[in-house]
Amino acid sequence: MRKKLVILVITIAVITAGSILFFKVFNKKPVVGILISTTESYSGERAGVLLALKQLPNNVEFVNVNYADGNIRKALEHAIKMGVRYFVGLDTSSDVEKIEDLLSKSHSILIESQVTNPQVVNDSKYVYTISPTDDIQARAIAAYIRYKGYRTILIVKSASNAKYVNYLSNEIVKDLKGIETKTLSISDISSINKAPNALVLIMSAQESVNVMQKIESKFGKIPFIGSDWSFRGDVLMRNIKISEGMITVGFVNLHAVSSAFENEMADINLQVTSPAILAHDAVIVTYDLAKNRIPSDRVYKYLGSHIFLGERGNFSFKAKSVNSPIYFYEVLPLNFKLVWTFGGEK
Amino acid sequence: MKPKITIPLVLFTLFLLMCGEVYLNYEYRLKDLNSYQNSIADHVSDNFESFFNTLSMFRLTPYASSLAKEAGIKGFALIDLRGDVISSFGTLNSKANYRYSNIYKFVSLKGNYISLLHEKDDLPLITIASKTGNGKHMAIAEFSPIRLNKLKNSDVFLVDGTGLGVSLTGTPVWKDFSALIAHKILHPFVEDGMIVNVKKMNFDGYSIILEKPFSPLLLSILKVQLIYLFVLFAFFLISYGLFYRVYGKNINPLVKFAEFLKELDTFKRYEVVENENNPAIDKYNALVDEVEKRSREYSDLVEDLSETNSELTNISHLLVEFSILFNDVKAKRKDLESALKIAFRRMLDFSRSINGVGMKYRDLMIHLGTVNEFNFDRVFDSTMSIELKTDSEKVKFVVNFDKLTVNDRLREMVKMLLYYITSFISMYELSEKSSLSRRYDPLTGLLTRQEFEELAIREIARAKRENDFVSLIMMDVKDMKEFNDKYGHFNGDVLLKFIAKAITTSSRITDIACRYGEDEFLLCLTGMRKPDAEIKWKTITSKIMTFKYDVRIKYAIASYPSDGENLESLLVQLDKAIKDYRSSNS
Question: Which of B97, B162, B175, B177 to mutate to test the interface with A (most CBs of A within 10 A)?
Fold first, then answer.
């Protein structure tokens, strides 16, 4: 009797443990890590991520992978150790360079929302970007300059985010053959003696405002063309007296954004910006990969053969970045006016 | 109810109780945490409200910057409806135009504005804005959220509408909670070993998130519960003991006995507890004892039989081995001594109870194990000494047993083996005797006719090979019947023995003599011609003539190769000569 009881108890324990193990191992949801710096002011991007998470079903688990002060390696190592193999990132090109080896070793996929440097993206088999790469942006800016007929161009670049600013400025120079082009660092703007036809600003929105203020005080109104980095709505609008008339590059069509998205952004007192939509769409793509458990060696093919529906409408990948037009917006009081479009498949 | 079942049942009940208690206590602690979190949320809300109230006071006194500093505001700006800054100080001390900023836009739309969390000089800041009382201005303030005292093992975060949070205790720590707040889980849950609870606030997506390690909480609950359960279990044991003492005695022994019989699956004793004596139970137990005793005897018997059976099998194998061994002796493939030694060795191996075996027969002494030539004749407690008679001799056996393990059955078996060995020795003796009588004539001691013929043939063959000579002398006692009638058979036998002695003493060692018939003798002389044989005969006959009575002998001589080429032709010639009465006398 006692023997039977012991056997029964052991059997029940084994079945229970087996079931739990089975449930834990075989029924585990795929996990996506949200790789985001807590020290950067990415409110728009964060809002985009949050709104995407709210609209997605619960069949993929999202976890925050926080890092501060550029210490991205440690955070990613921990996440990989915990079994996370899909990541959505709101990082700079310089940050991604630091973690390329970790991604390779663990065969983890990173979908970046704002990395645009093609060297960073193409060097790693595991990094994809939701934005068009900088070689395309450079071609777009050069094409806009030619379209506008400017003959002398001054490119001013930021002292930070070197990987991005140097690559983009060099590419623009390459594409502007036949046009007088000069490149300056932001610290050297006081040395400008003669006003060019237009200035290309490769820097953050706040730096752009500061540079524009200085240039305008010296030479009066000059056409300013800002790279995608300078497209921060709240900063530009707060300084509308300076920024009005500036042309800034965006990767999404803001006029195609749904009102629901706009309202949800307004609920937390934010305006819709290009980075918010890119972050949103990066989450959508990563979710799709994780849900279908696409292995790293098949991601390239999978992305190339699918059309995704994001907040900017339908979009698809061409090689390792999204194949979309480059939009040129003019900064006006209260809104941004789409003035020119470059490339993309209609 | 039996204690064997009761105690596990009570322990199981207590375990369930403990689980229930732990769960309730856990729920209680969570409620406690929840109410603590509510109070923090209220506190932070009050903090927000107080800043808004400060802004509303600006509606009355728009230039009271000193009041703002007292309220903990880090920066302040008053703007007109064109967005231009009228006055400002602290972190908002700039001449920016706010007309197209988010602040202006959302204050215009909603009446007031709360920004997301942002950082300036390692300080978390929130910007709030509101229209002033006269409706002609907007007041913008930047403040740092309230700091709380550090709670043991807990962290409290103020989280904005994008999921970015900053800790309200200790040094500000920034953390992203977007994945957490996206799921709108409004009850506590455990994640990565932490209990997490999200509390929404009524300020543009702001939340309070509390994190507390799960294991210390559970341990603190268990610590309390285990003491409580220990007390409960002790109380149960005391109650059970008291109950058993008071009511247990009064239970009728026969009822318990009947319960015992009902559950009986094998015939066993009923263990009588104090004060449960009853004649029926005593009789039952006596019966059980008797059955157990019989059962024991039966099993002993079976065991004994099985042992005997095994020993009999072994001994039958041993007897077969002995038989083979002695057959070898009979066939002269082995001598008697080595066969006996092997037999004794096998006896020693037969049982561990046999320590030594020894035997004395004629001048043969065999001993193995603890028996040796010095203690052969000494008798100990465990020694079996036995003297048996063979056909013509006596044989003495000594066997040493292990006195602790030997039994009568083994003694009898050993005796049987010794009888078997003795009977073999007897057979050996008889065989030896019959072998001698076949070769020699028992009266005269001379060779028999058959033996003689075998040897003579061999001798003639040798002579033929070596070109040598052989002579045969045949002797016949004339009128032996009359001699016997006259002097008696005894003297007749003495005469025959005398003649035989005369022959053997006169012949060489290489010569062959035999009693050829009743009163006939034959002598084979190797390497001797007929004339020499005649001389030899004379020597013999001279000795015979010394016998005390008158004796007459007939004789004939034949030689190889002159008289015949083989024994048969020579014997025919000799027979013929004897029949022709060619006689000789003394």
Answer: B162
Sorting pLDDT into bands at 50, 70 and 90, what band is B275?
Answer: low
Distance CA B26, CA B47 (A): 31
How sure is the predictor about A290, in pLDDT bands with cuts at 50, 70 and 90?
very high
| Count of pairs with CB atoms under 8 A, one residue in A, one in B | 103
Which architecture characterizes domain B50-143 according to CATH? Answer: 2-Layer Sandwich (3.30)
User: A78: which 2 tokens?
Assistant: 């921990």
φ, ψ dihedrals at B8, nearest 5°:
-60, -35
Contacts of A210 in chain B (CB under 8 A): none
At B421, is the pLDDT very low, low, confident or very high (cuts 50, 70, 90)? very high
Q: Residue A255 contacts by C-beta under 8 Å, 6 or more apart in sequence?
A: A338
d(CA A21, CA A102): 29
pLDDT at B586 (0 to 100): 36
Query: String of b and e for A138-148 (b: at least 16 CB within 10 Å)?
Result: bbbbbbbbeee
Q: Would you list the domain boundaries of chain B?
A: 50-143, 449-579
Helix (H) or strand (E) holding A75: helix A72-81
Place of tokens 């320590």: B355
Q: Determine the average pLDDT of the residues in B296-304.
A: 92
Which ipTM score applies to this complex? 0.80
Decide if A254 contacts A272 (C-beta within 8 A).
yes
B399 pLDDT tier (thresholds 50, 70, 90): very high
Q: Both tokens of residue B513?
A: 């003599």
Q: Whole-prediction pTM value?
A: 0.58
Q: Which of B106, B113, B163 comes nearest A46 by C-beta?
A: B163
Q: Which of B99, B116, B164 sits opposite A240 (nearest CB)?
A: B99
CATH superfamily of B449-579: Reverse transcriptase/Diguanylate cyclase domain (3.30.70.270)
Question: Mean pLDDT over residues B435-443, rounded?
Answer: 80
Mean pLDDT of A270-281: 88
Q: How confident is the model at residue A79 (pLDDT cuts 50, 70, 90)?
A: very high
Q: Mean pLDDT over residues B474-497, rounded? A: 90
Cβ contact A133:A321 at 8 Å:
yes
Q: Judge: B161–A240 Cβ closer than 8 Å, yes or no.
A: no
How much is the pLDDT for B144? Answer: 83
Q: Which residues are CB-neighbours of B464 under 8 A, at least 6 positions away? A: B560, B561, B565
Q: What's the rounded mean pLDDT across residues A300-322?
A: 89
Contact B100 A238 (CB under 8 A): yes
Q: Is B100 on the interface with A (CB under 8 A)?
A: yes
**A32, A49, A50, A335: best to mutate for the B interface, most B CBs within 10 A:** A50
Cis omega (within 30 of 0) for bond into B3: no
Q: How many angstroms separate the first and last alpha carbons of chain A?
A: 79
Q: Which of A232, A240, A315 is nearest to A272 (CA)?
A: A232
What whole-number distance in Å separates Cα of residue A75 and Cα of residue A68? Answer: 9
* Mean pLDDT, chain B, integer: 84
Q: What is the DSSP letter of B558?
A: E
Handedness of CA A275, A281, A287, A290 (dihedral sign): negative
Collapsing DSSP states into helix, strand and coil, what is residue A178? coil
The pLDDT value recorded for residue B585 is: 44
Identify all chain A residues contacting B183, using CB atoms and an 8 Å cutoff. 53, 58
